[in-house]
Design brief:
It is a single chain. By secondary structure, the protein is an alpha+beta fold. The protein is 44% helix and 18% strand. The strands form eight sheets. Strands 9, 10, 11, 12, 13, 14, 15 and 16 form an eight-stranded antiparallel sheet that branches. The protein has a five-stranded antiparallel sheet with strand order 23-24-30-26-27, with no helix packed on it. It has a four-stranded mixed sheet with strand order 5-6-18-17.
């Protein structure tokens, strides 16, 4: 082998090894990602999808989040994306399945970039490998590893450009593959990436059409027509996903598009450009903003941009794409989004910074072009380009000192670059200058590529995908979960919802043990992630409940879920519910019992951060109740506890006279009753410790405690029976309107509602309120009792005594069956989200399902005995499935015809050649 070729092979091997080394720890350490969206979103959804498919069930409906929501229609899951099926079926261990999918798509992205640079762009293998390594190993793709569906979509980006450029010259051969690739990208579930891809290709096509003015108009418009055809064909192939998702989009919080202020959320701040484009040696910038290909890679891209000035307009289109995408990424800072954010498509998505995906691809292409032209001697790095490189490098380094002025609250903790970071960038710039001044031109591009990958490798240590911890963070079940699961197994009813209220500020009770067990195996940061994961499992934070099949009231989603009606209903629980559906972090108090019962909440999880010690007595402050004059709370189901007094944490309602009665306490026991007056001077400990101690003469075992407000009344924060003789105390649960049992699990408290209503119940009174705001106001009325009256968005009003028996005879996420004995005409209220795909069959005949109480389902039931079946499938099903399958079959037939015709041509050519030789 010639020396020059040997060096090329070694250089190619070095590029490949450096690119793979970027992700070696993620794939070879045995550790897992246990933070961010990977942990709380993709692990749960992937685990649930894999279990369903392995059990032979195709999950159309998700009964575990948001009081019920579509599963398939939530495109972010990627339920119909073929590589996901392979991962779910081959790797039952969810973190392994996710890790393998990440690896596959990083390789797929690199292979796509390599083929793009080799085939239509016709660069050398070394240059193509260089560009592929920069794209697949660059900061933009790596930063989105935690958003798995976005990474999957980005992996198809170079393939779409490749197939589009090939289809421009041979549409009959390459168009079907372009359609299939675009459909696959849509099936990954990240529709914004699909939109970015189509717009990016459209920009390139429009540039080519504008520059080729010497060609006929029809030919100039052909690329745009080609793209439109591919988009239409892809929608047909993706119909089984697209149509259910389209239906969901019309019912989500995003229906009608986002507000202008929301469309520019996560715009790339100009002050952050340096941090976004340079490798983070000290800290990794937020993943939505990162788009580095290394400082040396950026230098190559600048050289490439300089060089394509003399190339064809198709090459210049990559500069146009880079510049256009950069200004789109600036969002509100660039001016373009003031108009674009109101246009269809643009108004559906947040995070303009994601347009940097096109920047990442185009800058990698330009860098590869520079490597190719430098290596072949077709371009030289003259004095002007060298000066430009120095200016660009110094400008990027200087820009990092403005990062603290980004104006983005999510980056408020961003600090000035450290000395190490500045030194690293300075050394890189110095080496790049030395290479460009002193190294032979044919080797300069290669050396800069190796330098860029070296930068990315060093900076990868700060990337969040290398923040790994023990697999136990996912696999080890925490204590609250088996308690609920065990009770599920011993209970006839399969439907049991929980609600979690916690900001996970507590320390796990076993934290010392966990730190000792893992400190020799993991870094301090990895142990921290393990502790956070443990706390999230302690309170069963959404969406982790999907892993154990525990139905929850809320959920976590940043796409089309939750439903708009869910967010509206949540206003009964919170003044301003978050758009992503989470209640856990935002609830500061337990919601009213009537709403908990309406939602079928049997379990409540809270932490002990708000519990209080006063006078040596521990008080549970999970509930707080206001008792005005005449209002009473009765606490029964008390344990066999011998007490010498009752301790109360109270807050007097302003307006009463000092020393005047504000309430009364009555304690009942088998031996009699104890009565005491509560006045606003009963506490001598001051406002910071409003402790009231009511003592009786002899120890007694209470069977009931009754507290009544008087005068100006008081707010009760906690109550406990206590025994002064041994210092023991027993917390009373002061939940108004409910009977709750408490189990202490370290720093987490689990409450069980003993009177939780069933999944479905008969209600005889219903009124029609079609306006959601009016319905919300009606339900907020203090006298409104959802156990006795329905608010319907349609149907007929009803006034009857109701009553009867409802027996759940079959239950599955997509199907419910009931045996009903109605004493009078009634509505059956089903505590499950109303959604168009649900159909009801009453005694074998279709029955309408009405939206009740803003969110839930109601079916009219005449007096008598009936059977009722509820079934779910997307409204577009099975037409969407048939359309998609027919599309794939037609596409396969199209490709088969092409292959057969190509084979016949080859055979004919060989026969003709043989005849010619014979003659």
């Amino acid at each position: 082998m010639k020396p020059d070729k040997a060096v090329i092979w070694l250089a190619s091997l070095g590029i490949l090894m450096l690119a793979l080394a970027l992700f070696a720890r993620l794939f070879m350490s045995g550790l897992i990602i246990a933070h961010g969206d990977t942990f709380t979103y993709f692990y749960p959804y992937w685990d649930a999808a894999g279990k369903a498919l392995r059990a032979g069930r195709f999950p159309l409906w998700n009964d575990l989040l948001f009081v019920g929501a579509p599963f398939l229609a939530n495109s972010q899951v990627g339920l119909l994306y073929p590589p996901n099926w392979a991962a779910w079926l081959l790797f039952p261990d969810t973190p392994t399945a996710v890790r393998m999918s990440i690896l596959l798509h990083l390789l797929w992205a690199g292979l796509g970039a390599y083929t793009l640079l080799r085939a239509p762009l016709k660069l050398s293998p070394l240059a193509a490998l260089s560009g592929a390594a920069l794209f697949a190993g660059g900061g933009h793709l790596a930063a989105h590893i935690e958003q798995l569906n976005q990474l999957q979509g980005l992996a198809w980006l170079p393939w779409l450009f490749l197939l589009f450029l090939l289809a421009r010259t041979r549409a009959g051969l390459w168009l079907p593959l372009l359609i299939a690739a675009l459909a696959c990208q849509f099936l990954t579930g990240h529709t914004q990436t699909v939109f970015i891809s189509i717009v990016g290709i459209g920009i390139l096509a429009a540039w080519m059409a504008w520059r080729s003015q010497e060609t006929p108009l029809r030919e100039r418009l052909a690329p745009l027509l080609l793209l439109a055809t591919a988009g239409f064909g892809a929608l047909i192939l993706a119909a089984p996903q697209f149509l259910p998702t389209l239906e969901l989009s019309g019912l989500s919080n995003r229906s009608g598009g986002l507000l202008p202020g929301d469309t520019v959320a996560f715009s790339l701040p100009p002050a952050l450009i340096g941090r976004a484009l340079l490798p983070g040696y000290d800290v990794a910038v937020h993943n939505e903003y990162l788009a580095t290909i290394g400082l040396a890679g950026a230098i190559l891209a600048v050289i490439g941009a300089w060089g394509v000035r003399r190339e064809s307009y198709s090459w210049q289109g990559w500069i146009v794409l880079a510049v256009f995408s950069f200004f789109l990424a600036l969002g509100k800072w660039g001016g373009m989004y003031a108009i674009l954010g109101q246009l269809p498509g643009f108004n559906l998505f947040r995070v303009p910074a994601r347009w940097m995906a096109l920047w990442a691809l185009s800058s990698s292409v330009l860098a590869a072009f520079a490597v190719d032209r430098l290596r072949s001697g077709q371009m030289a790095t003259g004095r002007q380009i060298r000066i430009a490189v120095v200016i660009v490098g110094l400008a990027l380094i200087a820009a990092t000192f403005f990062s603290t002025q980004s104006g983005e609250s999510i980056l408020s903790g961003m600090e000035l670059p450290s000395a190490i970071a500045v030194l690293g960038w300075g050394v890189t710039l110095g080496l790049a200058v030395i290479i460009l001044w002193l190294a032979p031109v044919k080797w300069s591009g290669l050396l800069l590529i190796l330098l860029a990958l070296g930068e990315l490798l060093i900076a990868s240590q700060k990337m969040t995908y290398n923040r790994l911890t023990s697999p136990d963070a996912f696999s080890v079940t925490r204590q609250s979960i088996p308690i609920i699961l065990n009770q599920q197994q011993n209970h006839e009813r399969p439907f049991r919802r929980y609600l979690s209220i916690s900001q996970i500020m507590f320390g796990p009770v076993d934290q010392p043990a966990l730190e000792v067990a893992y400190r020799d195996q993991l870094s301090a940061e990895a142990v921290y992630d393990l502790l956070i994961a443990s706390k999230l499992k302690d309170v069963i934070a959404p969406n982790l409940n999907m892993i154990w099949g525990l139905p929850g009231v809320d959920g976590f989603d940043g796409g089309l879920l939750p439903l708009r009606t869910y967010t509206q209903f949540s206003r009964l629980l919170l003044d301003n519910p978050p758009p992503d559906g989470r209640l856990r972090e935002y609830l500061t108090a337990v919601p009213e019992q009537r709403w908990l019962d309406l939602l079928g909440v049997e379990y409540l999880l809270t932490d002990r951060m708000n519990d209080r010690q006063a006078g040596g007595i521990h008080f549970d402050e999970t509930w707080a109740i206001s008792l005005e004059a005449g209002q009473t709370i009765t606490i029964a189901d008390l344990p066999d506890f011998e007490a010498t007094g009752l301790a109360l944490l109270i807050e007097a309602i302003p307006g009463g006279q000092s020393g005047a009665p504000i309430g009364e306490a009555v304690v009942t026991s088998e031996g009699g009753r104890f009565e005491a007056v509560i006045d606003n001077a009963a506490s001598g400990a001051g406002e910071s410790d409003p402790l009231v101690l009511l003592r009786w003469d002899a120890p007694l075992t209470a069977s009931e405690v009754q507290l009544t407000g008087a005068g100006s009344g008081f707010i009760l924060h906690g109550a406990a029976l206590y025994n002064e003789q041994d210092g023991a105390s027993y917390n009373l649960i002061i939940a108004p309107g409910g009977r709750w049992q408490r189990t202490d699990i370290g720093d987490v408290k689990l409450y069980r509602n003993q009177d939780v209503p069933p999944l479905a119940r008969l209600i005889g009174r219903a009124e029609i309120v079609t306006d959601e705001e009016a319905a919300l106001a009606r339900m907020r009325e203090a006298a409104f009792n959802p156990a006795q009256r329905l608010i319907l968005a349609g149907g007929e009003p009803l006034e009857s005594e109701g009553g009867g028996e409802v027996t759940l005879t079959a239950y599955a996420p997509e199907q419910l069956a009931f045996a009903i004995r109605a004493a009078a005409d009634s509505y059956l209220l089903v505590s499950q989200a109303h959604y168009p795909g649900w159909t009801a069959t009453l005694d074998g005949q279709p029955a309408p399902i009405h939206r009740a109480d803003i969110l839930l389902q109601a079916i009219y039931i005449p007096a008598g005995e009936h059977t009722l079946t509820l079934q779910y499938a997307p409204s577009s099903w099975p037409a969407a499935l048939i359309t998609g399958m027919a599309g794939w079959l037609l596409l396969a037939a199209w490709m088969l015809v092409i292959l057969v015709r190509r084979s016949l041509r080859k055979v004919s050519f060989r026969l003709a050649s043989n005849r010619h030789r014979a003659i």
